[in-house]
Amino acid sequence: MTAPHDLPRIDPETLPEPVDVHDNSEALAAVRAVIAAGPYDATWESLQRYTPPRWYQDAKFGVFLH
């Protein structure tokens, strides 16, 4: 394993331009549209109808965290 001080230096000139993410309203609108079209509401009763898949019930701890 390489120690952090052994890593090559990054040349700032080779980095991509920064991405402006201060306005994420378009992405949030897309998420809201998916939620609105989905089979669940923002209620406990709605979520209680959900049945997790078998693989989730059998998943190991490490898979759950990822």
Automatic annotation (TrEMBL):
It comes from Curtobacterium luteum. This is Glycoside hydrolase family 29 N-terminal domain-containing protein. It holds the Pfam family Alpha_L_fucos. GO terms for molecular function: alpha-L-fucosidase activity. Residues 29-66 form the Glycoside hydrolase family 29 N-terminal domain. One of its GO terms (biological process) is carbohydrate metabolic process.
